[in-house]
What does this fold into?
Amino acid sequence: MSKPGAQVLMTLRQQIASGELPGGTRLAEIPTAQALGVSRMPVRMALRILEQEGLLVRAGARGYTVRSVTLDDIVAAVEVRGVLEGLAALRAAERGLDQVADTALRQCLADGDALFAKGHLIEGDIAAYEDMNIRFHEVLLAAGGSQAIREALMRNDHLPFASVKALAADKNDLEREFRRLNYAHMQHHAVYDALAKGQGARAEALMREHANATLAYTDLLSGLSS
Amino acid sequence: MSKPGAQVLMTLRQQIASGELPGGTRLAEIPTAQALGVSRMPVRMALRILEQEGLLVRAGARGYTVRSVTLDDIVAAVEVRGVLEGLAALRAAERGLDQVADTALRQCLADGDALFAKGHLIEGDIAAYEDMNIRFHEVLLAAGGSQAIREALMRNDHLPFASVKALAADKNDLEREFRRLNYAHMQHHAVYDALAKGQGARAEALMREHANATLAYTDLLSGLSS
DNA sequence: CGGCTTATTATTGGATCCAATTAAGGGCAA
DNA sequence: TTGCCCTTAATTGGATCCAATAATAAGCCG
It folds into this structure.
């Protein structure tokens, strides 16, 4: 209630991401405003922003509809994330890691090693891995030292499932997740090795491939529009 | 007057791109609204959109300031454009060119050849080359067949000087421009050759390098903030 | 009976008004 | 004289109102 604008934006984002508003749903100002208990103004702002982010598309001259996102869309967005993070890794390797970045990355690797050392995963480990994973990618991006890459990535990550933060782990099959996440973590190790040795091309190629590790195809197939 | 909203947006974009509103300039709603002769509402919309596009940054909790764009920012944005168009080229090569794309690209090459055949450039040729250049990049992007790449590029191109459309030709030194644009056109030829032969990696590498052809460093150095 | 035209309604965009928040400046006290 | 607090002004965000526009439905004419 303190910030209706931000509230509306968050709510709509969440409803779109969660599938509560499936692709193709028409969003008019007045009904949504009434549904959320605010005036039309914050809704208008939110709709414009969500359009800019690519979550909504204009329905002719009359309002917006929720974007229908296909599996191909997600794969393409992940591919884009791959080349962008790859470029960040290339630049980081060429510039060299500074002290704090090096320490942070080593910490990420150690945290991951601790998770996998016991040979299996327990429920809380998924969240711990996600946290470490986000940190790793964030540090790497910062080490790339390019505002343009950061912005392009932030824009790209608006798409549901495309972000690093949405790695869609299946908590019901911890055995399978162990292998998947362990593989991803090994890629982290390899990327760090390449960075430390100044091997830009290798770091880039690894990060490009690593983007695919986010995808858990079978899980994604359910709950997609069109 | 028919469309105050779009008018305000266009005007502000142009004033920012032209340097009439230099980096760091504070933009408050009321003064700009009065200056443009409209109410605060379309200005508010425009400011939000321009913030999303990255042309404005928030000044604390009070209004926006025009983003200061450095030469490094532009180089980084061009680098990002390179990897994105490179990815589009890679995908286009792997998917294969369809009939209309192939024809359109050949037409672009022929148009360019005609321009350079006479051994020198005349004033109107610059505009003709720009037109052909935009067409070439557009067709290639379409051939990549990825909405994610297109969106990432569109967002990246909002930055002044970063877009394909801003190749900053120096009309006072047509001799130098002849060599520069001819080189760029040769890269177009090479990219098409790679595409036609299904050489994805080659096409990608060429497009990545080709992005740099937009930059005319000496011309850009003047008129930049900070 | 069907197509075209017109009228009505739904919906967005713009303007003005109001409240809330923050920054700045001045005054008072130590 | 300086620092802190209080008051005031400026500016943004939200709500309501009004106008313009497009879509839909109904009625009339062919």
Summary: Chain A has a mean pLDDT of 90.
